[in-house]
Design goal:
single chain, alpha/beta, 9 helices
Amino acid sequence: MKIAITGGIGAGKSHIGKLLKSMGYEVLDTDEIAKSLMAPGSPMEARVLEAFGACIAGADGHLDRTALLSLILDDPEARERLNRLTHPAIMAEAMARCEPERITFVEVPLLYEAGLEGLFDEVWVLTVPLEVRRSRLLARGMKPEAIQGLIEAQLTEAERLGRGGIPLEGDSPDLKEHVIALVKGLEMRMDGKQT
């Protein structure tokens, strides 16, 4: 069983991931998978550099992530091109790591934007007020204009929730209990499938 965890930047997907890991579950982070697939010298890094040119290459000739982020924030067409180029390989790797007899959680920030929800048995949508997300990102050292660009590049919470995922209030004091209850429900469904 594959469960996607999605939500806007700064919503706390990694917090949910850590909680699930502490409960003994496999949690995959597609951002981490993307970084490993675009490591220096990798075929994907070469394809991205070829697609976007020297403007995203550092002095060493390898991908400059900051330059790439700046490019895709300013250019929606470039962002879409990057997603088309990288998402299939990222998701193929994530799906390959899912074990058929276990529940695997996958953090997918741009799940709905990329139309990937059909790959999962269930989607959890993490919701957090925009001002909380902004303050979290500022605390990480991000610049306000970069935060605004990233927020504008993603769906709104209302748009995400309109796609039918299970909502999780990321700043709720009952978040842990809600996650535990959802996991128990998944375990019961898994037991039902296996008997």
